[in-house]
Amino acid sequence: MRNLIAFIRKYSFFFLFLGVEALAFYLIFRNNHFQSASFLNSTNEVTGGVYTKYANLSDYLHLKEVNDVLSDENRRLRDSQLQSFERLFGENIIVKDTVFKRKYLYTKAKVIKNSTDRQNNYLTLSIGSKNGIENGMGVIGPNGVVGVVKNVSDHYTSVVSVLHREAKISVKLKKSQYFGSMQWNGEDYKMIGLKDIPNHVQLNEGDTVVTSGFSSIFPEGLNTAVIRTFEVPEGENFYEIEMQLLNDFKQLSYVYVVKNNALFEVKALESGREEIDD
Amino acid sequence: MIKKVISYPLQFILFVLLQVLILNNVQLGGTVNPFLYILFILWLPIETNKALVMGVAFLLGLSIDVFNDTMGMHASACVFLAFVRPSILNILAPRDGYELNIPPTAGGLGWFWFLRYAAIGILIHHFFLFFVEVFRFTDFVDTLGRVFASSIFSLVLIALAQVFSSNVEDKR
Predict the structure, then answer these.
(1) Which of A17, A155, B30, B65 is 20 to 30 A (C-alpha) from A131?
(2) Using CA atoms, how far apart are residues A182 and A203, in angstroms rounded to an integer?
(3) What domains appear along chain B, each with residue ranges and CATH number?
(4) pLDDT classification of A192: cutoffs 50, 70, 90
(5) Which residue of B has its CA nearest to A39?
(6) List of residues 6+ apart from A208 with CB closer than 8 A
(7) Among A236, A232, A144, A155, which residue's Cα sits nearest to residue A190?
(8) In the A/B pair of chains, how many CB contacts fall below 8 A?
(9) Cα–Cα distance between A14 and B83 in angstroms, integer?
């Protein structure tokens, strides 16, 4: 017993190191769960406040780029508006006001923190649960998918970026409607991989890839990336595809959080199906 | 002495803010990121209690983590640095040991000593940090490349910080 105490005394610094290191790794693993709620992060009121102040300052430096992106987006929206179409024939307008029901609701949000240099990247937005943001909502930028809401506090939201090694987004080819999943390999923030496209599909460089809408998080058909390179590894049945993201993640200043009004219904339906499977 | 004790918390806050607000936005080629904040651990007086250094290192890493959403990664790397710091100091010790109350800076022990001390500390910290971040050894060479690239970047910054702080010391 005396020897044991002497031993522990002698190596007390080493045991202290093991203890503190174990605590650090406990924190790492507890936070590694993809959707796990965590309390110490940048949705925190203190760190969120610091980032908001900083974003207010640094916003001025990016005004030009933000304006370019916004005006481009406005042009696209104007393009698709009814006023820009000419009627070719017929005099009466049919108003089908019970045919359409609003499915997706968008909330504008400012990005107060963003990163692209890590293996698992996150964004922090300046709106939170008081603005109606909930866990699991989708986040889109001016040019397609940005990420999924992971954590919400009263005034801040933490978003798992598409540039996260564990983040998988369901997408499809715009032309042929074949679907696959998009996942980042942690290297270049402009490029992203696409998997699960069978090798008999005809692909071309520059093909557009859009959201599939399967996950009920993002609306269907959002342009998200274009194919740059593709190949079939020997002995495989699926393509290995590298795509270029349309959003420039280093320049994101404003994003939109998407709320799906039908989500509850879809989830209830799908969970009911699982019960039947069991 | 009292002045020094008070100045450390201030330094702590300054290093954290400098790291998360400015240096985290500095990236060469997308993935190379400098980490200046570990200079706080390197600069702690040589006689500081080892356990205290470890506790402070944990808090410092945790503060960076809280801002970065990288829970525990920087904390674990800093704790490891605090663990090996006494050994580094031992290896680099002059033949007749350190003089009492001499600071582990370029001003106190010379540029040659400080650069070796900082380089070893940075390499150990970055190696630990980057491998904890990817958490696998498959892309070993790739990750090692990132460790060295970031280490060089950090060393340059730490040397610069040392130059500026030495000037302040001289003027006093």
Answers:
(1) B65
(2) 16
(3) 2-166 (1.10.1760)
(4) very high
(5) B66
(6) A173, A174, A175, A223, A225, A226
(7) A144
(8) 88
(9) 8
| Domains within chain A, CATH numbers bracketed | 45-81+95-165+254-261 (2.40.10.340), 168-245 (2.40.10.350)
A88: helix, strand or coil: coil
How many whole angstroms separate alpha carbon A127 and alpha carbon A111? 9
Please give the single-letter amino acid code of residue A43.
T
What was the ipTM of the complex prediction?
Answer: 0.82
Cβ within 8 Å, pair B69-A50: no
Whether A29 and B71 have beta carbons less than 8 Å apart is answered as: no
Q: How many CB atoms lie within 10 A of CB A216?
A: 19
Chain B residues in contact with A38 by the CB 8 A cut-off are 71
Gyration radius of chain B over CA positions: 16
Q: Which of residues 16-75 of B touch A (CB under 8 A)?
A: 17, 20-21, 24, 27, 30-33, 50-51, 54-55, 58, 61-62, 65-73, 75
Q: Which of A156, A144, A190 is nearest to A39 (CA)?
A: A156
